[in-house]
Amino acid sequence: MSNKEKANELKALYRKIYRFLRNDRSAEKVGILKRIGREYWQSLSENDRQDAEDQLLRVMKTAVITIEELGLGQSTVYAALLFLFISEGKYPIEKAAQDFGNEVEVILNGLSKTNRFSDKRAAVGSENYVKLLLSMAEDIRVVFILIARHLVLMREVKNRSDAEKLNLSVESAYLYAPLSHRLGLYTVKSELEDLSLKYTDRETYDYIAHKLNETKRSRDKYIQEFIDPIKKRLDKTGLKYDIKGRTKSIHSIQNKLKKQKVEFESIYDLFAIRIILDSPAELEKSQCWQVYSIITDMYQPNPKRLKDWLSIPKSNGYESLHITVMGPASRWVEVQIRTRRMDEIAERGFAAHWKYKGVKSESALDEWLSSLRESLDNKELDIKDKLGDFKLDLYDEEIFVFTPKGDLHKLPKGSTVLDFAFAIHSKLGATCVSGRVNGKNVPIKHVLKSGDQVEINTSSHQSPKQDWLSFVVTSKARNKIRQLLKEEAGKQVDIAKETVERRMKNRKIDMEDALMMQLIKKLKYKTVTDFYVDIASEKLDVNWVIDRYVELGAKESENREVHPIASAESFVMNAPAQETSSSDEMIIDQNLTGVDYKLAKCCNPIFGDDIFGFVSSQGIKIHRVNCPNAQDLFTRFGYRIIKARWSGKTSGSSYTIILRVIGNDHINIVANLMSIISKEDGVQMRSISIDSNDGLFQGNIAVMLANTNMLEQLMKKLKAVKGVKAVSRVN
After folding, report:
1. Domains, the chain
2. Cβ-based neighbour number of residue 514 at 10 Å
3. Does the global pTM surpass 0.85?
4. Alpha helices in 88-139 (DSSP H)
5. Does the N-terminal or the C-terminal CB of the chain have fewer CB atoms within 10 Å?
6. Do 674 and 684 touch, CB atoms closer than 8 A?
7. CA 14 to CA 507: how far, in whole Å?
8. What is the per-residue pLDDT across 228-267, written as a single tens digit (0 to 9) for each?
């Protein structure tokens, strides 16, 4: 974008924001905002201003989205704009309440907390990240701003690197699209899903977009044929309404293609007809059902596909009446009936509730949040079904903290630095001497808070202490400390026992186990271990113990008393129970160095393909970015996605891929194909299967080759053979 274009866009955005904020009550606030912006700009050097312009553009676009697409109020817009100046240190957050009101300060505090960990990409895929985000947001409007900010990034993502495109696309599919859906932001959700598909599987996206464009004229004609008779009937009723046809999103069409396993032309519900009524509040339901009656009189309805969200709205506030009827040419058509208020809530979600219900909407929002609280703690639900609860005290029994690399861990409330060390690795916990929390040195007893970044300091001279059990709260730390203390005690017992035996041998005294056990019992010890631990810690002197042993033996000799020999069995230390703990996490780098992985058979990646890693129960699987299953993995298991790339140059490895060839059944065409493959350096044919029917042939050819360059070169040569119509790679 040229400087002139950038300047024009900034002016246009400024005018939209200014018109929205400027009124009698907020003139003073607008003046303060302009002064802060002017001071910020004047503080920048000429070199910094270009980057600042780009930042300012993104912030202003975010603010305009909150106004035009989310329908939020002035407090949200002030917060979205002010946060740039706060993050650059040009405006203290403490002044926000005084200058702009308490609501703005609350939103800014939420943005500040979430911004501390927003750059930790390793954590974004974690389910714990979702909980941390929602627990620290404080105000629902913080989440709206985060969604708007991410939407701006996705709209501009085409200018970024492939790695950034994949990162942002996975975040869209896994986090922000489901989040938008739960907030009722269907337009935003659809756009994020479409953009995610566009930058992860461009071929499928372009195919559907092209097909939609190809069929637009016939689709528009059919919609007109369908709605014309409806309009005539509705006009006679005197109802005020709008009626329009809406094509479904590319992402939803792709889902239908996959689920129904049909060709594009076989999808009957590519579009929906929407009837929007201008109804007074008291007549909303009755007028919607009146329209329903008119349409079902004209077209045969499918009773199995009636969806009544008028009587019982969805948990996110969505209200509408959906019916599917048999239209002209025996095609099923979906019709959505709703009022203007319902339509705005459907487009803008709960933000629109505040506009229509005012203060009373708070109770409706509380009910909604309360109903969703349970779903986030239900381990049987998929993550997509868990998003939606935004209360600050939702996770008051859990905290979420980061490692120095940005990995996110969940711990119980009250957890200490030592608990965190044991959560990472048992050895790390056993040798922990202190920690660094957010860059500051703290003792191992220091209690952690959500969002803390924790680094562990260790020493080879450190070992577990008994008093550690008094302040750790996690069962893993407690169990491991007990186990290590028992192991250490066992070592000390062996040393102490050996010392006693050596001293007795030096004094030419034979040690009888039965007599020693009697002495241990006489000294009031419950177990042999406790006795020898006291010797090891020098609470008991070895020579004093031997003297008591000799005295006891002499006394028994003098009295000539016969004592039953005590069974050693009653004194033998029971072997300490093996503490069970989950195996330590394996941390891998993003290049998969030294890690076992397999190439996924669903897409057969070869050297040169754009790839990503997926952590499965069978280990790490490498998929192509445009794998048929990629979108499903991004959406359902975003937290298992890891970056992967081919390192170095192609090695001597060969990969088997299958080519699909279609063409005219000319004489010698198969021989020509085989001849080209046999002459290609580094390419080896494994098998060929050809079917011929009515002058056409189609078949699969399996070949082995080293990389995508060789594949592209081979496909180009095969396409050039006379009679060949298409050559494609089979997944």
Report:
1. 3-203 (1.10.3210.10), 210-348 (3.30.460.10), 394-473 (3.10.20.30), 482-570 (no CATH), 597-643 (no CATH), 655-730 (3.30.70.260)
2. 13
3. no
4. 96-100, 102-115, 121-124, 127-136
5. N
6. no
7. 97
8. 999 999 999 989 999 988 777 888 888 877 876 767 766 6
